[in-house]
Amino acid sequence: MLSRAIHERDIMGRFTDSVAVMDWQRDLQLLHHFSTYTALTMSEMDSIRRCYQVAYPRVGYSSKAVMHGILGVAALHLAHLYLDQRAKWLVISTNHQNRAISGFRLTLPTITPENCDELYTLSSLTVMLRCASLPFPSDPRHSDPIDDTCEVFMLMRGVNEILKTSYVWVAQGPISAMLVPERLGPFIPFESTDLLPLDDVGIQDRFDTLKAIALHESFDPAIRRTLLQSVAALSNCFRQIMVQPPDREPGLLLIWPIRVFPEFIFLIRQRHPAALIFLAHWCIVFHNHANFWWLGDRGQRCVSAIAEQIEPEWRDYLHWPLEYVEDDSNIGKPGVV
């Protein structure tokens, strides 16, 4: 064999087949799968698809970490597609993920014009790997969907920190299409607590209710401000998604995690009822994009977990999210509602 083997039974407890850590023929298969299939499933925008299909592999040719990230995503895609081979592809994907993360840690301390494309590409692949993660067959339990979503929030905020430092450089490079400037409409100021008007898309009353929740008299003033800012940012996120053309870009979903205050993520972790209600409403647009394999049923699972964990007196505010995620006809619906 070309290298030592990872035994699936060592990782998952039940499987006896061995999977080579390095196998150049298999890696070529994964790269081919990524370029000809996976890349076309990541977005509905042609410019984004081309970026995944052509620009990402080109960045990977000069970066082992990025190439491992690409191969990890391709293997995870195969794990989603072929249930009878899921164990094998999960082991392979995990191995590539670990190697990608090791390379990421070496590159991250210094962001320069020379490595900004590598860092952005690798960080975006890491977010996809986290969103698309699957449990091993020997342990089918999912981690808590709420805490898991908080981890996605933190990853996205990390991507944004890289982008804030290197936006001008990335915008001039081979992966500039990933910034989707043509889809980013007007943004409210970062710390604004004023909601964008949503009358024209038919959900103004929904957000008026969320604003009233944020202003609940039982909440501390600092918490009320954090909640108001998160609702304002959520209105911005909904508007961006609801008015985009039919060829959707799911990356717009991840605007909200970037724009909320860090304190809001803490409130989610603490299971603050208002924070959970707002998170459940964000899961509406997540469920609308569930036809993208790397997002899948994450929104539905998160809303279900919120309904189970929220204090009973607040559960009525989950009516719209619960109703929405239980209806699969909402998946892929133009304009969300």
From TrEMBL:
Gene Ontology MF term list: DNA-binding transcription activator activity, RNA polymerase II-specific
**Superkingdom of source:** Eukaryota
> PANTHER family, from UniProt?
STEROL UPTAKE CONTROL PROTEIN 2
Q: Spell out the protein name for this chain.
A: Putative c6 zinc finger domain-containing protein
> What phylogenetic lineage does the species belong to?
Eukaryota, Fungi, Dikarya, Ascomycota, Pezizomycotina
